[in-house]
């Protein structure tokens, strides 16, 4: 039986790859595993029926037989363990790729999200303009080091892995800002991820949910 994931019925970015079901869709496409999607409303996400799957009332979730998972890092690690293609066979290379999964979610994503959330919910606060450069600097501090590590390599550690999949989706959150503009190798890295056929299929599938629906009011 195919796994089932949950995704937004209505998404703030209208299906342009930022909602985190995109990560799971992309991983499933990379390994060639067909999947079903159950769309959930913001209200339904907070109901007990969904919280059984996701204690924090969010998407995505992943159901496969009697297994239910939440957290994209865990879901992608699970998919990568079930199928070849997302983590190397060599034990040390595999451990390093897993390290990059954690780095994407624990080291790079938090300052990007802090900045994004501040711009959404703190914009009208008196201190927002003063705080914004601090948030920008925190993102830059991470991007400088990431860019320096990547250098002119295609991927973070040898062949494309789940670490790259997560890192590309995290960096894509910056696409509406100019913060990444100073790092041409990171821009090229994100573009390489987006050019993968599996990414394109996942993106098209997520977008299709919204192009068939009227926009949120
Ligand atoms: N750390 C979680 C974050 C999940 C998350 O933030 N999901 C967002 C969509 S991308 C969500 O459901 N937001 C609605 C909410 O929190 O109410 C993961 O990686 O799965």
Structural class: alpha+beta
Strand order of the largest sheet: 2-1-3-4
Which molecules are bound besides the chains? glutathione
As a whole number of angstroms, the C-alpha radius of gyration is 18 Å
Mean pLDDT: 96
Helix content: 55-70%
Count of extended strands: 4
User: How can the largest sheet be summarized?
Assistant: 4 strands, mixed
What general form does the structure show?
globular
- Sheet-strand content, in percent, reads 5-15%
Q: In terms of per-residue confidence, which ranges show pLDDT below 50 for 5 or more consecutive residues?
A: none
Number of helices: 9
Intertermini distance:
36 Å
- Element string (H = helix, E = strand): EHEHHEEHHHHHH
Structure description:
The protein has 217 residues and is an alpha+beta fold. Helix content is 56%, strand content 8%. The chain has helices at 21-31, 42-45, 48-51, 72-82, 91-121, 128-150, 162-171, 184-195, 197-211; strands spanning 4-8, 36-40, 61-64, 67-70. The chain is globular, with a radius of gyration of 18 Å. Bound molecules: glutathione. The site of glutathione (GSH) has 7 residues, from loops.
């Amino acid at each position: 039986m195919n796994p089932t994931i949950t995704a937004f019925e209505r998404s703030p970015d209208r299906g342009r790859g930022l909602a985190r079901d995109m990560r799971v869709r992309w991983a499933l496409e990379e390994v060639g595993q067909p999947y079903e999607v159950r769309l959930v409303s913001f209200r339904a996400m907070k109901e007990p029926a969904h919280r059984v799957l996701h204690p924090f009332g969010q998407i995505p979730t992943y159901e496969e037989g009697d297994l239910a998972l939440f957290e994209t890092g865990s879901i992608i690690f699970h998919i990568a363990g079930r199928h070849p293609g997302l983590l190397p066979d060599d034990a040390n290379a595999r451990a390093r790729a897993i390290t990059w999964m954690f780095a994407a979610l624990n080291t790079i994503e938090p300052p990007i999200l802090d900045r994004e959330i501040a711009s959404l919910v703190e914009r009208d606060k008196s201190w927002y303009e003063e705080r914004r450069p601090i948030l920008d600097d925190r993102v830059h501090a991470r991007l400088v080091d990431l860019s320096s590590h990547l250098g002119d390599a295609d991927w973070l550690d040898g062949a494309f892995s789940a670490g790259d999949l997560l890192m590309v989706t995290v960096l894509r959150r910056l696409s509406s800002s100019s913060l990444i503009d100073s790092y041409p190798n990171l821009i090229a890295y994100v573009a390489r991820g987006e050019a993968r056929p599996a990414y394109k299929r996942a993106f098209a599938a997520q977008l299709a949910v919204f192009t068939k629906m009227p926009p949120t009011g």
